[in-house]
Every structure is written in C-alpha cells, then in structure tokens.
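ok so i was messing around last nite and threw this chain in just to see what happens. nothing serious, just curious
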Amino acid sequence: MLLNFKDPPLKTNETGKERSVGFEFEFTGVEMQDAANMLKNLYGGTIHQKSGYEYEVSDCEFGDFSLELDASLFLNKKYEKVLKSVGLDVDKLKNKEKLEDTLRGMASTVVPFEIITPPIPLSKLWSLNKLVDKLREWKAKGTGSSFFYAFGLHLNPEVPELSAESLTRHLKAYVMLDAWIRKDADIDISRKLTPYINEYEMDYIRYILRDDYQPDLETLIRDYFKFENSRNRPLDMLPIFKFMNEELTTKLLEEELTSARPTFHYRLPNCSIEKENWSLAEEWNRWVLVEELANDEKSLDQYARAFLNMDDKSVFGMKKKWIKLMERWVQDVR
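result:
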C-alpha cells in the first residue's frame, strides 16, 4: 500500500501559487538512453542527447527532466584537464567518443546517474511513484545495492516565503530534527562515511538556537559561512542564499556547483529504489516534519530552549536523549 504524500503547513508560496518540489534520484544499473526513454514513456516529451554524459527530456508533462552522470567530473569535462596534465590532448584523439564511453563505463560502477525532475506541484507528487516503480522494474541499483553506493535522494522544496525570518526558522527546525531523521530513515553507512551529508557542527547549532538569534539575510548568510558550512550539509542552504543575495553568496562561495534557486536543498535521504518497501512519500513526509516544526513558533522556541538546556547539562553527550524527546514530538504531530 502506497503512503500518501503529506501536505506541508504552507501549501502556497508568498505569491499565492501552489508550491512545487524538485527531486534528484541517484542510481546505477540502467543505461542513460534507456532511462531517457523511460522518462519519455512515462511523462511524454522529446529526448535530446547533449553529450555522452547528459540527456534532456524536454516538454514533458511537468517540464524538462535531466539525466546526468556526475556533474563535477563529466559535465564540465574536468577529466580532459587531468589527461592534458599528463600530456594527452583529448581533442586530438581519433576515438574521443570511445574514450568517453570507456570513462563512463568505469565511472558508473561507483558514480551514480542522476535523474533531475522539473518542479512538481505538491498536489502531483504521487505521479513520481510511476518513475520509482519503473526504475525498480528495470533493476536499478540504489543506495543499498553495494557498500560503495553512497547514493542519495535530494529534495528541493520551493520555499514558502523569501525572508530571512522564515529561512532561520527552518534551519532551527532542521538542526533539531536531524538526529531523529537519521535514525528513523536508517541512513546507509556508505553515506555516513562520505562528506556529503556532514552534520552541522554543535557550535553552529548552539549559535542559531539562541532566543535572540533573529538575523537579517546578510547576517544569516555570513554566519553560515563563518561557521564553515558548505554544500555538504544535509540541509544545504546555499542555493536559496544565492537566489536571495547572489552577489554576497558568490563572493563567499568557493565551489562552482551551486546554482541559485528558490528552494531548500535537502540531501540527506537514501535513494533505496532497489528495495520494494522503500517509499518516496516516506522520505518526503520526514521533510514535512521540518516544515511543521518551523511553522509552530511555540514548539520551535520550546524545543530550542530544551536543546540548549540539555546540552549544558550533558557530560557524555545528549544525542540519544534528544532523539527520544524528538520522537515524542513526532508522535504528537503525526
């Protein structure tokens, strides 16, 4: 029985339009051309092969789907710089396409393909169940298929409000729920061992959970960088920061992959499409808990004070106790 996708407390953005969510599925085991055909058959559209590592299925039911292999290495063709550094000019090779095919084949054993969806309206999220079912039918390999598959599911929920106050509330809510979500979602050991979903440091958590932490946007962004946060956090705030203040964020940003968009970038979940009982809705519903806590001002303030108080009194760590406290809150709101 399929789980329902729960509605967040705020279903519209600040202009009154229905909010949307983009998803990024990481997997292997299905060829890119086959996956592109799969998307076309499910949602319509036209297939465009942009390179050996990138396809687009445009004009689909919801917009344009992208299918890529590791953006940092292949989409920017960084491998060409590496080969040139040892005296091999890829542009002069007669069989350049064969080289790319070989590199792609080697990389796909550990580097995932990504299906990047267009923004899907909240009321239509159920339509992505068809994609999960079809990938599973084609024996796609997800997070649990190998110890080396640190594959993730990224969610990009459109923010309900473009304000520093709203972003701060969601950050506070997330850092308090992070430990509970990790336990409840049973985050795979392969992902825990990578730097992609590093927990926020306690110094930063203590700093933002203070009652008097009500920053303006510039202060919020500068503090995020001051505490050495990067895109490798389970809730990556860089895309929304860049959207709201591109000049400042770009100035402070050292890496190239962040694009500006009016969304949170929630990158914690496994992408366990190989498991029959894995549910896209279940991963989404955990995120909805973050929005529910963020929009309950009384509970948000109460649990922030409880967190700081427990932290002050804990000599040997507080994670287990805190997870139990969050579990009680979750049961109350479910």
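not much to say yet. DSSP finds 14 helices and nine strands in the chain.
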